Acetyltransferase (GNAT family)
Amino acid sequence: MIRPIEVRDAENFLELCKKIDESGFMLFEPGERQTTVEQQSKSIERMLFEPNKMIFVAETENKLVGFLAVIGGDVKRNRHSANVVLGVLEDYQGQGIATKLFNKAFEWAKEVGISRLGLTVMKGNDKAFNLYRKMGFVLEGERVQSLRVGGEFVNEYYLYKLL
């Protein structure tokens, strides 16, 4: 089931994020996320009052297995534009969950006036890159040495989709 996140999801969502961080492909290093459940609850609560911000969660058998966050701009000039962050637990990848999350987010974004979505992916994360291309994202460019992973510099691809 794909649904908007709720404040009551804070603890499970935080655990989901920590597990996904272990993939090595997220911004946070494994074990680096220090958010408390209380902080996560407040963050979700604040976000739910923003008209162009949303987190959709994928739930299977009362367990959160994935999410897609859409974070829209805060000023008039960029409110139409949003950044996307996707995470799905490895055991649940390849089952269409990410596709369902994206489709729900696309539908919602159009309803709230978001017409441009952008995201980044580490160079070398071919699985994610191919998924994003399948979902209609277009390669916009490459940011050189934008991250340092395991002591090594890593480039990121920037992709976008116009709705």
Q: What stands out?
A: The chain has a mean pLDDT of 94.
